[in-house]
Model the fold of this input.
Amino acid sequence: MLGTGVHLSHFAAMVVFALCVSVAFACLGRQTTAGRIKYAAWSLALFLVIGVGIAWLMYPFSR
Amino acid sequence: MATDAPLLEKRNNMVPAIAILAAIAAWAVPGLGHLLLRRWGRALFLFLAVGGLAVVGYGMRGEMFNSRSSDPFGALGFIADACSGVFYFLGRQLESSGSDISRAAGDYGTRFLAGAGVVNLLGVLDAYRIAAGRKR
Done:
């Protein structure tokens, strides 16, 4: 069904992963809609900032 | 009345059948456990989150572990993958060209598939706790 494959850059893959996990965490961890939106946005931002931060920290060792 | 106390305590400690049913349903189809418990929003977004991770993981040609793996990491991978319920069993159809972990994308896909299972496991535990009356 997905024979042609999904082609994502590394960053896009990280965003998709972070988005899905953030939405799930927000749904399971908060009761109200406003709380869920805030939690999902905060979780997504932390995923991305920490991910990019770790990538920069590892950059000197990549070559 | 004092003789009823152990009986009441035992009854309180019993897990309701609906909690087991909700947990099994939540494992089989992500979000179904919450759907049975009338938690519409959680059901929808949990299905989308787990389904999104699994479909993208298959699309990136991630590796789906089987139960006959010889090393401990493979066994853990199988447990994580199997927790995604129906998406584990649809793996053969969704990933008709097979896995390819020789590329980075395939390796990422493997993490997506494991992530889908772990997120669904959280959903199973959540549905169980709601049905058992331990969470709103």
Q: What stands out?
A: The helical segments of chain B are 4-13, 17-28, 32-36, 40-59, 72-82, 86-89, 91-94, 104-131. The interface with chain A takes residues 41-42, 45-46, 48-50, 52-53, 55-56, 58-61, 93-97, 104-105, 108, 111-112, 115, 119, 122-123, 126, 136 of chain B (CB under 8 Å).
